[in-house]
């Protein structure tokens, strides 16, 4: 190791050759064909050159080393502020490196670093790169030859194994490598292409909950090329699954999860989407060949349903055939350490032939976590891996707090509540964290007060959640309806508080008393009595998301689609948990099977299955002692609870199977308001509208005997219209109010549903 001066002499070509005098070569104890490591003070990484002897340097005094350029590296650029940190006359520490210590680049992803670069043929690019030594795994390289400059090119270099990985334990001092004739070089259209992106950046958080450990185990099996015993006492094993299909809604964190697992396992990661295959320089076989060269490797095929939709043209069909050959070449080799992972957002949109190519299918349910990991299933399809899951939302809280700076402006309880209520997907949590950081960075954040700041952040989080749910055609929210907005019905309110609000607010008490919280309830009674308002107020009081299912959400024209719509609705409810599912006009969708058609019968059967599944999850939570006490008092609603509330005008028309214990076992009657309840409803309307002092509230209560809540509200609206017609537009503001004569006129003109309460 010697301290030497560097002479940078630009030539017509960019090479990786460093020339020294014969004496200097001998002083370095170098052998023919060895390399030299040049370390400059203040730079992160050394540069490696092929060491050669130049007799002309023997005539000069002092130890000198001559190169034609100093390779740039991203980390050094940010540290020193210039791309060529070493100039002529600078001093570097030189050390001889044996050829065995220089890794050979197995795969090189190359893309133009600037705009308007001339298009180069791949064989010519390979000739320019032959013999070059790359400064690191991800950097840029200058291509020059014979006085012609072909510009700067960004690259990502891949090697067999991985630096410091968790599978091989290999640690290397030099992060770069040598490009040889055997190196596979692929040209990408731009540096932003997914496969030309570095995957070495460290992530600071776990993107998904513990339920992803089962999927991680499958990937680890493929990368280690090991099999897993069945665990039934026999010698039978499950072969390592080299092809995995990961499906989940958009924004659930599929790509982030694969990045995290590849990083944890120390594997190389290649990414491929349909846009890259449109390039004339890239073929599907090239990516599989690259994966085999850089084992252990994870090959990620993103958005498979866009690459292989249900309807295939001739070009897509040929691509499917090529995919079959590529997957078979990996699956037929027992020692291959490659995991091919395909991601799908809409599983039904993927072509069935492509779906059959993958050994395992894994659903990424962001609302649950794994209890016991990977369990072999003895279902119809052998080898299918099943993950047993129970509700848990602790990871949403941890993810949100990990993305936020340390600040005393926001209460921890408030952040927990945000994560539980609106963190249905990792993308939602990241967006919420970004909004919080923007609010905290404002100059007036300290002046507006904590309460106002939290209200603004909660409103933004609600918009983010609604926007993401809108993509699933099912919108949810926390309704802005309180108990005070509903006049009367105190008995019904108390029933709802005891059956819905208390299990969420006091889960420890229910568990200690041995009470199983109800999972469903039916509100029945005449139309217009406030059943929908009661459902919304209950969701607001409990802090649940509110999922309102209508006939258009569930009734589909295609055979089997209605049952799928019910399943998707409850999948959405699980992601939104804690959530209240409200089904209005229940008898019109789920009538008696003895008189219903085939579609209704299938829908009833599917809903019964979903209700029984909720009951099974609730029982499992009690058996395993799963609770959310460790999350905090404000996140006691985080137990993954789903409550189904149905409203009907004809209880007798509902199929009797729904009224069995464990389903809608609680039936509450919502009748017409009595005199005191009608008075309470009218008083609420008076607080929202300008009434004259001559309005006789007692007389109105008497005149509206038999009216439902909707009719009373309609009466007040009609009286307001009468007042607008009666009062001149230029009248003073204090005279623009509703008088008793307006109510009398409204009662005479209007058609209101006044029924006999005794009927």
TrEMBL record:
Alphabetized UniProt keyword annotations: ATP-binding, Coiled coil, Nucleotide-binding
Residue ranges of every copy of the AAA+ ATPase domain listed in the record: 240-368, 517-674
Keyword RNA-binding: no
One Gene Ontology term of the molecular function aspect: ATP binding
Source species, domain of life: Eukaryota
Name of the featured protein: AAA+ ATPase domain-containing protein
């Amino acid at each position: 190791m010697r301290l030497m001066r560097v002479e940078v002499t630009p030539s017509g070509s960019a090479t990786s050759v460093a020339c020294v005098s014969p004496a200097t070569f001998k002083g370095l104890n170098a052998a023919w064909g060895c390399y030299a490591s040049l370390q400059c003070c203040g730079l992160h990484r050394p540069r490696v050159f092929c060491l050669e002897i130049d007799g002309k340097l023997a005539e000069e005094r002092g130890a000198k080393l001559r190169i034609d350029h100093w390779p740039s590296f991203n980390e050094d650029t940010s540290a020193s502020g210039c791309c060529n940190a070493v100039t002529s006359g600078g001093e570097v520490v030189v050390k001889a490196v044996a050829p065995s210590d220089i890794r050979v680049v197995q795969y090189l992803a190359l893309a133009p670093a600037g705009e308007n670069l001339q298009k180069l043929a791949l064989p010519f690019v390979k000739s320019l790169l032959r013999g070059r030594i790359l400064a690191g795994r991800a950097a840029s390289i200058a291509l020059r030859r014979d006085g012609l400059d072909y510009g700067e090119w960004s690259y990502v270099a891949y090697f067999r194994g991985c630096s410091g990985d968790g599978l091989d334990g290999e640690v290397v001092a030099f992060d770069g490598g040598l490009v040889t004739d055997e190196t596979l070089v692929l040209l990408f259209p731009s540096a932003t292409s997914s496969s030309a992106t570095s995957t070495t950046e460290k992530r600071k958080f776990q993107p998904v909950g513990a339920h992803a450990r089962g999927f991680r185990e499958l990937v680890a099996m493929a990368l280690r090329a090991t099999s897993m015993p069945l665990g039934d006492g026999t010698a039978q094993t499950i072969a390592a699954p080299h092809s995995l299909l990961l499906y989940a809604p958009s924004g659930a964190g599929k790509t982030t999860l694969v990045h995290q697992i590849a990083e944890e396992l120390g594997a190389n990661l290649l990414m491929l989407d349909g846009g890259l295959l449109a390039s004339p320089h890239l073929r599907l076989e090239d990516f599989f060949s690259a994966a085999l060269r850089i084992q252990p490797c994870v090959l990620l095929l993103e958005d498979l349903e866009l690459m292989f939709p249900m309807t295939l043209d001739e070009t897509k069909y040929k691509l499917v055939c090529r995919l079959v050959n590529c997957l078979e070449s990996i699956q037929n080799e027992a020692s291959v350490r490659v995991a091919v992972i395909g991601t799908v957002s809409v599983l039904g949109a993927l072509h069935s032939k492509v779906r059959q190519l993958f050994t395992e299918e894994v659903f990424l349910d962001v609302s649950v976590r794994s209890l016991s990991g990977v369990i072999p299933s003895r279902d119809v399809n052998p080898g299918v891996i099943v993950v047993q899951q129970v509700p848990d939302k602790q990871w949403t809280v941890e993810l949100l707090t990990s993305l936020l700076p340390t600040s005393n402006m926001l209460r921890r309880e408030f952040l927990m509540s945000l994560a539980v209520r609106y963190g249905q997907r990792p993308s939602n949590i990241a967006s919420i964290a970004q909004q919080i950081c923007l609010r905290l960075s404002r100059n007036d954040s300290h002046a507006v007060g904590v309460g106002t700041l939290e209200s603004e952040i909660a409103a933004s989080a609600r918009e983010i959640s609604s926007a993401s749910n809108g993509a699933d055609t099912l919108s949810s929210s926390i309704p802005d309806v309180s108990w005070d907005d509903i006049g009367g019905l105190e008995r019904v309110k108390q029933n709802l508080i005891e059956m819905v609000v208390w299990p969420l607010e006091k889960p420890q008490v229910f568990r200690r008393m041995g009470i199983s919280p109800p999972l469903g309830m039916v509100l029945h009674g005449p139309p217009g009595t406030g059943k929908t308002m009661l459902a919304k107020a209950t969701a607001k009081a409990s802090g649940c998301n509110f999922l309102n299912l209508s006939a258009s959400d569930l009734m589909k024209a295609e055979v089997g689609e209605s049952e799928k719509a019910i399943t998707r609705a409850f999948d959405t409810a699980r992601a939104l948990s804690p959530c209240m599912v409200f089904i209005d006009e229940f008898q019109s969708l789920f009538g008696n099977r003895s008189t219903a058609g085939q579609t209704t019968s299938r829908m009833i059967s599917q809903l019964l299955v979903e209700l029984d599944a909720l009951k099974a999850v609730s029982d499992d939570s009690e058996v395993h002692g799963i609770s959310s006490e460790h999350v905090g008092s404000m996140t006691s609603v985080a137990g993954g609870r789903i409550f189904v509330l149905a409203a009907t005008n004809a209880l007798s028309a509902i199929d009797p199977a729904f009224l069995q214990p464990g389903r809608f076992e609680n039936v509450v009657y919502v009748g017409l308001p009595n005199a005191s309840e009608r008075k309470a409803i009218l008083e609420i309307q008076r607080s929202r509208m300008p009434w004259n002092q001559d309005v006789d509230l007692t007389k109105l209560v008497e005149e509206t005997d038999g009216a439902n809540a909707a009719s009373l509200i309609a009466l007040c609206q009609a009286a307001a219209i009468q007042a607008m017609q009666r009062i001149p537009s230029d009248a003073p503001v204090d005279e623009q109010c509703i008088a008793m004569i307006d109510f009398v006129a409204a009662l005479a003109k209007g058609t209101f549903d006044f029924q006999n309460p005794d009927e």
